[in-house]
Structure formats: structure tokens, C-alpha cells
Design brief:
Oligomer: single chain
Radius of gyration: 20 Å
Distance between the termini: 27 Å
Order of helices and strands: HHHHHHHHHHHHHHHH
CATH topology of the largest domain: Growth Hormone, Chain: A
Largest sheet: none
CATH architecture of the largest domain: Up-down Bundle
CATH class of the largest domain: Mainly Alpha
CATH superfamily of the largest domain: MFS general substrate transporter like domains
């Protein structure tokens, strides 16, 4: 089960190598670099929207069939992108199609694995989500080599075939978790919320605000790390580019460490810690003229906390609202990912600059830190403590 999920998640995580394609595609077709880069924002948004439909499709088709179909569509979207010569078509194939298929497989495999290991939600979520992060790290080298040797368009062809094969192979190891796999407390009707029941609680909206803040801070940094190093720390372009690799490494480390730690101590304490560190790091970045070491320490801290937040939140949703409807319930909170992916860039464009955007992120992190210290599971509030 774990092996199959890891293979699938590595394949799904390869979409985070998109930045490698921006300049080559811009050079080949004469498109604006910024216009090509929008593709990944569309992919991220489509991924988040897809999670809203994943639970219902899983009930209709079954988990293994849904994952296999998602893998086929994901691969087909990438393969179709190899024939694209118009930017709008690229938005549809590499953006909407790839993102939607990726989101379907991502949330269903993650939720299913958590159901198999209810007493180790944080650790198992960390393993699954770390595999997703490893996909971008591994395929950074594979896609870079392919782009340099066969060009960006042909790379889409090979990339699509490889990812399709990975997801299809991984799906053969997947078994849908029976309800009995959950812990006893999670199987009572009072602890298992439907989406409608969850939406009537204030806690889901507080979790959404926190998840949105976590995603906005992490995804914005990922999108501008190189440029921020040049402008805020005075680094040369080659040195600043190393921040991209550092983000991938610390993002993965954060997923494993904070995920496992959240099984040992209160998950909300872990989340509160991550918001405090992120707020401090972005405030330091607003100072400008910072040293080489301080810049990379801030980047590493933000990436570490972002990875941890992405890992711990699925477990928190399970703690708060039960495991029976986990994929559907988490898909609501997960919309913070799509909005976070878009918001940072839009805010930066409106207020024109890294520093003002970092200030807004710092304020949101402080607010989310306070929420994390105060929010309690709804079932605990009804007198059934965890």
C-alpha cells in the first residue's frame, strides 16, 4: 500500500518541475516568459478544484479505477502538450487537464493511506506528501536532461509516458481502506462529519484561513526565490538559483519531520510553531540588504514550515472531522492551496514588490498563529475529547 502510494505520488509531484519549461518554451515559440509561467498557476488551481470532485468519483468508480484513469488523463495531457503551438491550448492541456487529473489522484491516494494508518496520521501523511515533493526533485534532473537533448516539446512526450506508467503501476498496489481500518473513535457517527455538517462548524473556516496562509507564503516564495535573492540579498543569479534546490530539500525534510512530530505532540502546536517561524523569516526578508547566510536561512525556514503544514493539515482534518469522509472534507480545506497559489502573485502585482507582499504574509501568519493556539476540534467542544 505504502509502496504503491509512493510511486503514484512521485509521478504526480513531477508537475513541480514546470519552471524548467518556462524559458525554453518562450524561446521556441516567441511567447512572453510571464505568459508561459501562468500555466503553472492554472495547473495548481485546477488541481485544487479537482479535489472537490474526487470523493464522489471515487464512490462511483472505485479508488483503483479512479487513480488509473487519472494517470491516463495526466499522461495524455502532457503528451498532448508536445504538439501544442498556441499558448491558449497549452493552458488547457498542461494547465487544466494535467492539474485536474493530478488533483484527483493526489487527494484520494493520500486520504486512503491515512485511513489505513489512523494512529499514525502525521507520519503516514508525511511519507505520502514527501514522495510528492521528491517527484519534483528527481524529475528536475530527468526533465532538464530531456529539454537539453530533445527540446521542451518532445520532453512533454517522454514525461507523459513515464508518469502515466508510474501511476498505472502504483495503482495496482492500491487497496481501498475499509471503514474498519479506522480507530474506534473515528468510526462513531458523532465523530464522522459529512461535508454539510462540517460546513456548519466555524472550525472548518478557521482551518481554511490557516491553510490558505500556509500555502500562500510557501508557494509565493517558491515562485520568486531566485529573483528575491538577487534583489533583497544582492546575490548573483547563479548563487540565487541555488535557493530553488534548497527549497526542494527543506520542503521535503519539513514534511517528514513535522509530520512525524505531529503524532507525538499536539498538531496545532506544530502548526503554531510553523507560522511563528514563517512570520519571523518573511519579516527578515523585508529588511533587504541581508547577508548570504541569512537569506538562505530564511528561505530554508519558510520551505521547511510549508512542507510541514502541507503534511499536517490532512491529519488535522481527520482529527477534527473523522476519517469516513476525509477526502471530501479535506478537499474543502484544500481550496486554500489553489487560492494561495494565485493570491501571492496577484497581490505582488497590485502592490508592486516583494517587501510589501512579505509584510502582508507576515500579518496573516501572526493571525493564523493566534488561531492555531485557540482552535479546538468540534467533537471536543461537544464533550467527546480526542
Amino acid at each position: 500500500m505504502v509502496f504503491g502510494t509512493i510511486i503514484i505520488q512521485i509521478g504526480l509531484g513531477t508537475i513541480y518541475t514546470w519552471s524548467l519549461f518556462n524559458q525554453p518554451l518562450a524561446d521556441k515559440f516567441g511567447w512572453k516568459l510571464s505568459s508561459v509561467a501562468i500555466t503553472f498557476s492554472i495547473t495548481s488551481f485546477a488541481l485544487a478544484v479537482a479535489t472537490l470532485f474526487a470523493g464522489r468519483l471515487q464512490e462511483k468508480w472505485g479508488l483503483r479505477r479512479l487513480i488509473a484513469l487519472a494517470g491516463i488523463v495526466l499522461g495524455a495531457g502532457l503528451i498532448a502538450s508536445s504538439f501544442v503551438s498556441k499558448l491558449l491550448v497549452l493552458y488547457i492541456t498542461a494547465g487544466v487537464v494535467v492539474g485536474f487529473a493530478d488533483g484527483l489522484a493526489y487527494i484520494t491516494t493520500l486520504s486512503n493511506l491515512i485511513k489505513w494508518f489512523p494512529d499514525r496520521k502525521g507520519l503516514i501523511s508525511g511519507i505520502s506528501v514527501s514522495a510528492y515533493g521528491m517527484g519534483s526533485l528527481l524529475f528536475k534532473f530527468i526533465n532538464t536532461w530531456l529539454i537539453n537533448n530533445v527540446g521542451p516539446s518532445q520532453t512533454f512526450m517522454y514525461w507523459g509516458i513515464i508518469v502515466m506508467a508510474m501511476v498505472l503501476i502504483g495503482s495496482r498496489f492500491i487497496r481501498e481502506a475499509p471503514e474498519a481500518a479506522g480507530d474506534a473513535s473515528a468510526l462513531t457517527d458523532s465523530n464522522n462529519y459529512t461535508v454539510k455538517e462540517m460546513m456548519r462548524t466555524k472550525e472548518v473556516y478557521l482551518l481554511f484561513v490557516m491553510f490558505f496562509t500556509a500555502c500562500m507564503s510557501g508557494l509565493y516564495l517558491i515562485s520568486i526565490a531566485k529573483d528575491a535573492g538577487v534583489q533583497l540579498a544582492g546575490l548573483d543569479a547563479v548563487t540565487a538559483a541555488n535557493a530553488v534546490a534548497m527549497i526542494a530539500i527543506f520542503n521535503t525534510i519539513g514534511r517528514l519531520i513535522l509530520g512525524a512530530l505531529s503524532d507525538k505532540i499536539s498538531r496545532m502546536k506544530v502548526i503554531a510553531f510553523s507560522f511563528l517561524v514563517t512570520a519571523a523569516a518573511v519579516l527578515v526578508l523585508t529588511l533587504g540588504n541581508i547577508s548570504f547566510g541569512l537569506f538562505f536561512a530564511c528561505v530554508a525556514g519558510i520551505a521547511f514550515c510549508f512542507g510541514g503544514n502541507i503534511t499536517v493539515f490532512p491529519a488535522i482534518v481527520g482529527d477534527f472531522f473523522g476519517l469516513k469522509n476525509h477526502s471530501k472534507n479535506y478537499s474543502i480545506v484544500y481550496q486554500g492551496f489553489g487560492l494561495g497559489a494565485l493570491s501571492g502573485s496577484f497581490i505582488a502585482a497590485i502592490i508592486n514588490g516583494f517587501r510589501p507582499t512579505f509584510m502582508i504574509i507576515a500579518v496573516l501568519c501572526v493571525v493564523s498563529f493566534i488561531i492555531a493556539l485557540r482552535v479546538k476540534p468540534p467533537k471536543a467542544r461537544r464533550g467527546n475529547p480526542l
